[in-house]
Amino acid sequence: MQVGPRGPPKGYAPAPSHKKLNPSRSPTSPLARAAVSADAQELARLFLSTSCLPPKAARDAVHLAVATAIAADYLLTWNCRHLANAQILKRLEREAQRAGRPLPHVCTPLELMGDLPYENESAS
User: What are phi and psi of 76, to 5 degrees?
Assistant: First the structure.
């Protein structure tokens, strides 16, 4: 299956997995779940109350607030509507600075990867 620039085709569903990934329960997983602390809840309320994010983006506000509260370096997301959006991030950064909390660098996985060596090589 080819995946286009906008993701998989409509109606596509990946094959069900027999193992559900749950990083918080796996002792060998390098990933751990971050709790939604009171600090994160307050930051999410701030992001929503200042109209940086619309009310329907409450989950996105919590996602960003948790990453901010734990002082994450990066927040990877495919959500370009509310999170990986330069115009919205500019406003969110201003509000986070007012609260004395720097935002993590929010980007898509492709932005984080940067240029890959094989992308710059000419076909021979």
Answer: -90, 135
* Closest CA relative to residue 75, chosen from 42, 44, 107: 107
Question: What values do phi and psi take at 21, rounded to 5?
Answer: -80, 130
Where do we find the tokens 């609260």?
99
Around Cβ 110, how many Cβ atoms within 10 Å?
10
Give the predicted TM-score (pTM) of the model: 0.66
Alpha carbons 52 and 48: distance in angstroms, whole number? 6
pLDDT in tens, 29-42: 566 677 888 999 99
Provide the residue count of the chain.
124
Give CA 61 to chain center in angstroms.
10
Q: Where are the domains of the chain?
A: 38-113
* CB count in 10 Å sphere of residue 27: 4
Alpha helices in the chain (DSSP H): 38-49, 58-69, 86-98, 109-113
Give the tens place of pLDDT for each residue, 59-101.
999 999 999 999 999 999 999 999 999 999 999 999 999 999 9
